[in-house]
Specification:
The structure holds two protein chains of two kinds. In chain A, helix 2 packs across helix 3 and helix 2 crosses helix 6. By secondary structure, chain A is of the alpha/beta class. Chain A contains seven helices and eight strands. Chain A is extended, with a radius of gyration of 25 Å. Chain A has a five-stranded mixed sheet with strand order 1-8-7-3-4, with helices on one face. A two-stranded antiparallel ribbon of chain A has the order 5-6. The longest helix of chain A is centred in the N-terminal third of the chain and has 17 residues. Chain B is α/β, with parallel strands linked by helices. Helix content of chain B is 43%, strand content 14%. Chain B has seven helices and six strands, in the order H-H-E-E-E-E-H-H-H-E-H-E-H. Chain B has a five-stranded mixed sheet, covered by helices on one side. The longest helix of chain B has 20 residues. The relative contact order of chain B is 0.15. The chains are: A alpha/beta, B alpha/beta.
Chain lengths: 211, 209
């Protein structure tokens, strides 16, 4: 039997299908990548060893910037058909004697973090230019005579009682302010808080024990 | 593909150029870049979610309830000062008795962590051994089972220190987060964030700077 000689040739792999697939996957990930939500202030959060992820929805987030301004965020729940944000604005409107047009409610439902006194909300929602809207965000008042934050939290809990509370505060904020916010939330029946932190691993094992 | 374009040009009768031998475009750099970008996006979208640290505060009741009686020998008070200062003392600060001295420490490995590890040695060893046994595979349980077991170990512990965390008005939020983090690192079973008493404020005036 004649020996079958296999001719040794350098294989020419046609890369086209692989490049096609890569383009597809890349486009998919590029489009599904969510941008970080625009935050009203630059906050440097402290770190901890906790690895638990922030809940995606049913979350009330209270932001505290380094200059002690308080901002608020509330999501629409698992499904936008709940209209939590719109209901929250309506409830706050009733509390402060204001009404909002369907357009304003719609804008509120799709916006993110906000922090401004109740009196300015209507004007803010009507603003065409988002940059001007940013300037209006001076924080939610929390003074004892005009504690609007208390009402925001209370109404948010009424609209969605599954909502958890998360605190995202800058590391250099003085603790008494945080304690005040925590006390406020506790009067609304929430005793479990999620402090948003960055992950920093600390390995402490048996070897670290000085016997 | 480069070859097809060139042939068409020739058929249209445009500028006659010497026919180059088929240009082989080497796709390797492009594929490299795509692989890199792809991996980047796959990993960053997954990791962009911030993490949370769960803190449970004791319930607020309107009536002035007495603090549940806890053994003064097990109580470790940690007072957070301004500019990252940490003080601690054991027991209770009774204004009628001589005040205990505040010991100054810091957030380093040899600071408050060492003190906590010393005081909480038994519980820490139990939990660390359980975790290591799980890591090497000697115990094979689900994550949730392990978590509830560790929770039970903490709940059943009655020899470890009870930490009362207090902060002065100028204390920073990141210090509070750091101390609660130390609680998690050293597996402390029970701790609470409470208010600073007047006696303790007096003690701070005498404390080492």
């Amino acid at each position: 039997m004649p020996k079958i000689k296999s001719t040794a040739r350098s294989p020419h792999i046609d890369m086209t299908p692989m490049v096609d697939l890569f383009t597809l996957l890349l486009t998919f990930f590029l489009l599904t990548a969510t941008f970080l939500p625009i935050e009203p202030a630059q906050i440097t959060i402290p770190s901890s060893i906790s690895e638990k992820m922030t809940p995606d929805n049913n979350l009330i987030t209270i932001f505290i910037s380094p200059d002690a301004k308080i901002f608020f965020n509330f999501d629409n729940g698992k499904d936008t058909s709940f209209h939590h944000r719109a209901n929250l604005l309506k409830a706050m409107g009733i509390q402060y004697g204001m009404t909002f047009t369907p357009d304003q409610l719609k804008r509120f439902a799709s916006s993110g973090t906000f922090g401004l006194p109740m009196q300015d909300v209507s004007k803010w929602l009507d603003m065409k230019n988002p940059k001007d809207g940013e300037k209006m965000q001076t924080g939610i008042p929390m003074d004892s005579l005009n504690n609007q934050l208390a009402w925001w939290i209370r109404m948010a809990r009424t609209v969605n009682n599954y909502a958890e509370v998360a605190i995202k505060a800058d590391g250099n904020v003085e603790f008494p302010l945080i304690k005040k916010v925590l006390d406020l939330v506790q009067t609304n029946g929430v005793n479990r808080f999620n402090f948003i932190t960055t992950y920093q691993k600390e390995e402490v094992g048996l070897k670290d024990l000085v016997q | 593909m480069g070859e097809i374009v060139q042939e068409e040009k020739r058929q249209k009768g445009e500028k006659k150029r010497p026919r180059k031998s088929g240009t082989h475009i080497d796709m390797t750099p492009m594929v490299d870049l795509m692989a890199l970008l792809l991996t980047f996006f796959m990993l960053t979208t997954a990791f962009s979610k911030p993490k949370v640290m769960i803190i449970t505060m004791p319930e607020k009741t309107d009536k002035q309830q007495d603090q549940p009686k806890i053994a003064a020998t097990r109580t470790l008070n940690i007072i957070l000062g301004d500019s990252d200062k940490v003080y601690y003392f054991m027991g209770v600060a009774d204004p009628n008795k001589p005040l205990p001295t505040l010991i100054k420490t810091d957030f380093s490995k040899d600071g408050i962590r060492k003190v906590l590890l010393q005081k909480n040695k038994d519980l820490f060893i139990k939990i660390a051994e359980y975790r290591e046994a799980r890591l090497i595979g000697k115990i094979a349980v689900a994550d949730t089972t392990a978590e509830s077991y560790i929770k039970k170990l903490k709940a059943d512990d009655n020899v470890g220190p009870i930490i009362l965390i207090k902060a002065v008005d100028k204390a920073k939020y990141k210090d509070v987060v750091a101390i609660v983090d130390e609680m998690a690192i050293t597996n402390i079973a029970s701790y609470a964030i409470v208010d600073l008493s007047k006696t303790e404020m007096e003690m701070l005036k005498l404390a080492p700077r």
